[in-house]
Amino acid sequence: CDPQSLENALIKRVMVTPEEVITRTLDPLGAATSRDGLAKTIYSRLFD
After folding, report:
1. Where's the Myosin motor domain (predicted)?
2. CA-based, 20 to 30 A from 36: which of 6, 8, 20, 43?
3. Who contacts 14 (Cβ-Cβ below 8 Å, separation ≥6)?
């Protein structure tokens, strides 16, 4: 995955509705939660 896609995945939330696609930028706490979730998933897949 390219760095820009990873950054967007960690700092933005995308909601798809029948009428439109809504992109919302996360606050620093939300972005940190996304980062931590990704780290936990990677760790789990490597060692569990």
Report:
1. 1-48
2. 20
3. 21, 22, 23, 24
Burial call 7-46: b when 16+ CB within 10 Å, e when fewer = eeebbeeeeeeeeeeeeeeeeeeeeeebeeeeeeeeeeee
Give how far Cα 30 sits from Cα of 18, 26, 39, Å: 25, 5, 14
Task: Give the model confidence (pLDDT) of 5-41 as tens digits.
Answer: 999 999 999 999 999 999 999 999 999 999 999 999 9
DSSP alpha helices (H): ranges in the chain? 3-11, 28-47
Domain residue spans of the chain: 3-47
Q: Structure tokens of 38?
A: 């990704």
End-to-end CA gap in the chain: 23
